[in-house]
Amino acid sequence: MASDWQYMTEIERLHKTGAESRLRAIESQLALAFTLCAIAETEIRYSRPDEATKVVKKIRHHAETIRTHVNEPNHIPRPSISDFLKQLTQLEKCTEEIELRLR
Fold it and tell me: What is residue 73's three-state secondary structure?
């Protein structure tokens, strides 16, 4: 029979593994969102504003989802939060610049 100490150690390990997995998922979502910004800019460059608008909607959705997860208590390691918030600010700035070009 496992001791309470072993149980607690295993639970702690699983929580840490989960947080690291969520951290990597958010990193991937941010990378995808910045790639979508590049796609939207390309759509504008090739005079396809309707397609660019669709991509901007996807970016906005990604940003909202990421922000929800970043702000969720104990969802990701605390030291990562400020970096993600900075990246979200950059993403929102990029999105706003694209939307200005679409007007």
Answer: coil
Residue 89 lies in domain: 4-102
HSE (side-chain half, CA atoms, 13 Å) at 39: 16
C-alpha atoms less than 13 angstroms from C-alpha of 24 in its C-beta half-sphere: 5
Cα–Cα distance between 59 and 55 in angstroms, integer? 6
Q: Name the DSSP class of 75.
A: S
For 9-18, 37-46, 59-68, which range has the lowest pLDDT when averaged over its residues? 9-18
User: Number of folded domains in the chain?
Assistant: 1
Q: Give the span between the Cα atoms of 64 and 68, in whole angstroms.
A: 6
pTM of the model: 0.87
Chain mean pLDDT for the chain = 93
